[in-house]
């Protein structure tokens, strides 16, 4: 099993033209299976929808619990979208891609009656 550190190093975007850059923070509590699943799902979603335009910062609240207050974290795993604004939070392991895309505002809410 890879560590967060080795996975995070490969996520820095390559320099490109001026495009909207997404800054995401993933708050976890230790290197548990749920935390790793959340990270892998977030990385997959970003690679599919934001390739080259995102960065993910993993914050382990076991190591740095004081950082939870800054982004009002009450559950883990939680993803916080810092940029682009508006700031938004999404709790869970991001297993449901459609809900994650809507929660991160990468896809609009479906209209009532849409299938």
From TrEMBL:
SMART domains: KaiB. Residues 25-106 form the KaiB domain. Gene3D superfamilies: Glutaredoxin. It comes from the Bacteria. Transmembrane segments: none annotated. One of its GO terms (biological process) is rhythmic process. CDD domains: KaiB_like (cd02978). PANTHER family: CIRCADIAN CLOCK PROTEIN KAIB2, KAIB-LIKE PROTEIN 1. This is KaiB domain protein.
